[in-house]
User: Which sequence fits this backbone?
């Protein structure tokens, strides 16, 4: 008891008037209460969505929020009503082929923009940034016509193939990270007789692992969440639907209540949440990389 | 500047050696650079340069994919600036997002980040709670919010009812549909919040200490230390927010189709009213999409895309110009 009091007194600046101390305490509580209130507001939507996903069809028509009884079979019914596995499979194909191609093509480009010295590098990099900033709607019409002429509209290729030729965001993020690798390491490898390709594979790839992991995660997340391109190219062909487009059509197409719709929503959110907890560090690192050092 | 500093650090012999080698193998170096750049060069030409030029060209035609394109000159632009009844609503709705949604999102993200810096206990848990919604697939998040805010059984209006407030119709009310989208955006503010948090934690401690010695209170420290130091990050967030609102599509499209679907008991969303309710969520990208891919007016959609290009380009130019002036690359240029 006395030791606690002693530590407490030592931690605080001594000699402050009691009123000031009390005010500080109140301010601290006020700060935390705001934080707690905000946290509750952020969690509440998920809680309500999960609760609704567990109510019966009849209760879904009422304003009762708490499930009576809990109906976990809703989650099985979702799989019965909609081809969720097929959507997930298509999303998986899209995400994996796009991400692998994106990494293979973007890493050398980012290397050229960070570890190689050449005239006009920064000017050309500005062009990459411009491409990153322009809305996809600017170029979408001719691209659609191009894919239509190739007879590929309705399939996954129009979504996947562009990722195989360098993605502006990935190049940007990888470059930011590669620039932080001390030049001495690269020069040491070059002095030892490594060609640029070997410098890339032996030094930069190893040191750039966190950034590469972050880019891979962002790409998987982006493709899983992507709605605009699937809507454009896949709407007419339900057998190639990915989760995002399937989910958006789920309620109207299957004539179901909110409970099943929310169960499907939870199922689509779930993989993302799981991946986040498995790779939390890479996520936060990646986000910080885009913002602070940009 | 940094480059010369780096060469100075290397022993003079190595530097001279390198200079000679560079002169000899100049063309090889250029080829190496080209080889490394080649994926992007191809991708940029095929998936960006070509469609950009084609878009400008197509905007002078009337084309529906099935019949051959017909030259119409500037007719698409004349219709766009003169007669199209939907373009002004689309522009004002998009401007609404820029004027109201962007500042409120940035302020909110900053507020949450400030709250988080003061958290003594459980900072990690709080950070996760605020960040996670940013990862939730937009379609899922939108569906969730359309449900939460649905006028008949939605929990928000039910709870408002308990305290005697009759909630609005949210996504089904033209006056509330955009604010509802903003609420959805505030929920997914995590990415911006993390960026702010990192920036605030990066502010050198001694600045606060000297400000405190000068007798600055918490509010003054915020105004005269925190805000100026992280101003580049705030600018970055604002401009990224503007760019995001210029291409804001998914949430508005899904919300309109689902809300319209639940309003009409038939539930069909295939031909829902554009920008439901009453054109209030008709944003510029949605207009482009509708003309191009629902009505297959490829020429007119290209003309609309050209205007979007000009505006987006201007915003990007402002970003790059301002970041060059304000953002300091901490030893990052090589």
Assistant:
């Amino acid at each position: 008891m006395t030791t606690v009091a002693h530590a407490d007194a030592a931690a605080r600046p001594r000699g402050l008037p009691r009123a000031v101390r009390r005010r500080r305490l109140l301010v601290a509580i006020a700060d935390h209460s705001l934080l707690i209130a905000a946290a509750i507001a952020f969690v509440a939507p998920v809680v309500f969505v999960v609760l609704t996903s567990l109510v019966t069809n009849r209760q879904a028509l009422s304003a009762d929020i708490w499930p009576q009884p809990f109906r976990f079979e809703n989650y099985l019914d979702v799989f019965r009503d909609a081809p969720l596995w097929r959507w997930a499979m298509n999303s998986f194909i899209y995400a994996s082929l796009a991400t692998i191609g994106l990494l293979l093509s973007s890493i050398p480009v980012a290397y050229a923009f960070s570890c190689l010295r050449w005239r006009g590098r920064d000017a050309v990099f500005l062009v990459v940034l411009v491409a990153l900033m322009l809305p996809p709607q600017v170029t979408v019409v001719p691209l659609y016509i191009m894919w239509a002429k190739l007879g590929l509209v309705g399939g996954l290729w129009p979504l996947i193939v562009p990722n195989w030729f360098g993605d502006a965001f990935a190049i940007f993020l990888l470059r930011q990270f590669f620039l932080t690798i001390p030049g001495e390491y690269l020069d040491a490898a070059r002095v030892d007789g490594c060609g640029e390709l070997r410098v890339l594979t032996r030094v930069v790839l190893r040191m750039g692992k966190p950034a590469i992991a972050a880019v891979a995660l962002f790409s998987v997340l982006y493709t899983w969440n992507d709605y605009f391109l699937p809507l454009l190219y896949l709407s007419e062909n339900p057998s190639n639907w990915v989760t995002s487009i399937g989910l958006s059509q789920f309620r109207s197409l299957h004539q179901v209540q909110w409970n099943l719709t929310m169960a499907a929503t939870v199922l689509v959110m779930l993989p993302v949440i799981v991946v986040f907890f498995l790779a939390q560090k890479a996520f936060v690192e990646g986000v910080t990389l885009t913002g602070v050092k940009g | 500047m940094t480059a010369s500093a780096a060469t100075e650090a290397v022993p003079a012999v190595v530097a001279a050696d390198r200079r000679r080698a560079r002169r000899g193998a100049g063309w090889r170096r250029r080829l190496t650079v080209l080889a490394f750049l080649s994926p992007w060069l191809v991708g940029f030409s095929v998936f960006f340069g070509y469609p950009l030029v084609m878009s400008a060209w197509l905007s002078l035609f009337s084309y529906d994919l099935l019949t051959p394109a017909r030259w119409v000159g500037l007719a698409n632009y004349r219709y766009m600036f003169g007669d199209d009844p939907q373009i002004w609503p689309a522009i004002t709705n998009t401007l609404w997002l820029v004027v109201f949604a962007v500042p409120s999102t940035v302020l909110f993200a900053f507020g949450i980040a400030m709250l988080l810096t003061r958290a003594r206990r459980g900072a990690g848990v709080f950070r996760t709670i605020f960040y996670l919604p940013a990862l939730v697939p937009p379609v899922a998040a939108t569906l969730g919010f359309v449900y939460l805010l649905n006028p008949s059984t939605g929990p928000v209006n039910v709870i408002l009812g308990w305290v005697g407030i009759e909630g609005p119709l949210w996504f089904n009310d033209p006056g509330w549909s955009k604010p509802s989208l903003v609420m959805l955006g505030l929920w997914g503010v995590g990415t911006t919040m993390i960026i702010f948090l990192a920036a605030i934690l990066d502010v050198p401690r001694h600045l606060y200490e000297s400000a405190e010695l000068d007798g600055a209170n918490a509010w003054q420290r915020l105004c005269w230390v925190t805000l100026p130091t992280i101003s580049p990050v705030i600018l970055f967030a604002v401009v990224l927010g503007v760019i995001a609102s210029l291409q804001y599509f998914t949430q508005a499209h899904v919300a309109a189709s689902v809300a319209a679907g639940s309003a009409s008991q038939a539930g069909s969303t295939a031909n829902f009213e554009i920008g439901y309710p009453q054109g209030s969520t008709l944003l510029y990208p949605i207009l482009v999409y509708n003309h191009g891919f629902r009505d297959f007016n490829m020429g007119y959609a290209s003309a609309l895309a050209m205007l979007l290009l000009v505006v987006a380009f201007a915003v990007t130019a402002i970003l790059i110009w301002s970041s060059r002036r304000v953002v300091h690359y901490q030893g990052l240029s090589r």
Q: What stands out?
A: The mean pLDDT of chain B is 84. Residues 84-326 of chain B form a domain with the MetI-like fold fold (CATH 1.10.3720.10).
